[in-house]
UniProtKB/TrEMBL annotation:
Record-given protein name: UPF0434 protein NGB36_30275
Entries under Gene3D superfamilies matching the protein: 2.20.25.10
InterPro entries: Trm112-like (IPR005651)
One Pfam family hit: Trm112p
Record field: transmembrane: none
Biological source species: Streptomyces humicola
Length: 79
């Protein structure tokens, strides 16, 4: 289930409390400042620090390149 920009406006990283980006390709929420990705499982964001995975440089650049200014990734989610 894609995340809307309205929902993104309500969600925050549990570690630095900053805004998140939506990575539709991975169906996850992403914090570019900490390079941490939070999974979305069955439409539910798992915003737990111990559930996040660290993102490498190539994935970081891919996410930023495909994210629109409103924080939503422009690639449809894989099903």
């Amino acid at each position: 289930m894609p995340v809307t920009k309205d929902l993104l406006g309500l969600l925050a990283c549990p570690v630095d409390k900053g805004p998140l980006l939506y990575d539709a390709e991975r169906d996850a929420l992403y914090n570019p400042r900490l390079r941490r990705r939070y999974p979305i499982v069955d439409g539910i964001p798992y915003l737990l620090a111990d559930q996040a995975e660290t993102v490498g440089s190539s994935d970081h650049l891919r996410i930023l390149a495909r994210t629109t200014p409103d924080g939503v990734n422009d690639v449809p989610a894989r099903h």
